[in-house]
Structure formats: C-alpha cells, structure tokens
Amino acid sequence: MKITKSITKLINTAIYPFFERKSLHVSQAGQDFWVYGEVFNEMRNGYFIDIGAHDGIYLSNTFILERKYDWKGICVEANPSSFKLLKKNRRAICVNACLDGTEGFADFARRGLMGGIIAPDKFNKDGDSCDVVRVKTQTLNNLFREMDVPHEIDYFSIDIEGAEESVLKGFNFKDYLFKCITIEHPTNTLKKIFTENGYILIKEIPFFECFYVHESFFGQYCTNLFDFYNKKYLTMRWK
Prior knowledge:
By secondary structure, the protein is of the alpha/beta class. Helix content is about 30%, strand content about 25%. It has helices at about 5-20, 30-40, 65-70, 80-90, 140-145, 165-170, 190-195, 220-230; strands spanning about 45-50, 70-75, 95, 100, 105-110, 115, 130-140, 150-160, 175-185, 200-205, 210-215. About 40% of the residues are buried. One of its GO terms (biological process) is endosomal transport. This is Methyltransferase FkbM domain-containing protein.
C-alpha cells in the first residue's frame, strides 16, 4: 500500500517543522508527538509497550502519553540502575527484564542509554571500559504471556541497541497487533518481517528511526492525521 500524494505532502510540509518545537515532545525524534498527535489525534486512555524505557523520562517515547493523555502500559528496562529510576518516574507497570531471542543469561553493558547485551551482532560488541553485569534473558512472547498483554496494542516502542532483530524475528505477530510502531535502526530482515505482517512504513529518519502503522489501522490513521492538523490551534502553510 502506498501513501497518497496528499498525505505525503502533509508529511513534507507540516511534520518536520513541528519536530523542531521541543515543547511538543520529549522523545529524541518526535516519536511521542507522532503517536499522540498524528496517529491518534490526542486520543486518551491508550495502551503502550515501551521496550528499552531507560529512566522513563529522558528522551522517552511514552512519558507524555502517560502523563498528558492518561495512557497505560508496560515499560521494560534491562539495566538495574536505570530500572530503579524508572519505577520512581512512571505510573506504568515497570518490568526489569532483558529481552533476547532465547531464554538464558547474557552479559549486559551498563552504558546508560547506549547499554545493552554484549554480543558480536549487537551494538555493544565488548565490555571494555564499562560496567558489565550478568542478566537473565527472556523472550518477548513469554513476557507478553506473563504480563497478560492485550492482543491489540496501540503503540509499540522498541530501542534496545541492536537486539531488536533477535527479539522480534521469533515474535508471534499473528497473536498480537500493534496499531503503530517506532523502532531504531531496523535491519533489512526486520523491515521484511514488518512488511510480511502488514505493517506500512510511514516514514524513516535515515540511519535512525522507522515509523510504522498496521494496514488495518491505516484508514483511521489518515483521518486522524488530517483532523489533528486541522485543529484551530495549529496553523499550517501549504505550498
């Protein structure tokens, strides 16, 4: 499915200038603004899953959703130090878990936002010059079952420093539907997996972030996108 020319025009003329208005988002690249504004038109009481939530505030993709729009959800963080802050900062259910493709144990580099599993195929290829802890790993499928996650989820955010493919390539997409997804540095394998499971790439920040909407929600997304930008307090300049 291709985005219509009018939607492409809206993205090119309206979205990127709003990313510069930092007061509208706390996330690194406007992911939260995209979700609460363009995808859901300021919908209240949504549901999110935030994988790699860090301390729950700094560059968070879900903090505004929770605090301003009363969304509920689950924040997952592997780093024990960051998790302590996460529990203090957020009202969402907070889970201290290290996600991977298999259950077992792994070495985890504690490098703040850049921390993650140490492995040759991950961003953290070694544990030099950092604090390393041994952590238990868990699959996303098992986490969802244990936490009784609903089978339809409004927003899925995942940023785990190169472990995204190992976590998602074995995930049961047939049992769970995400209306929208933001993911950092998806591999070509992951992009193919998303496409095969009905996810439409709405936009991509090169070498950084991809924004997806599920095909079953695409029509509503288009409606919400136009309605959001047509509100009186947002003015647009069409070229």
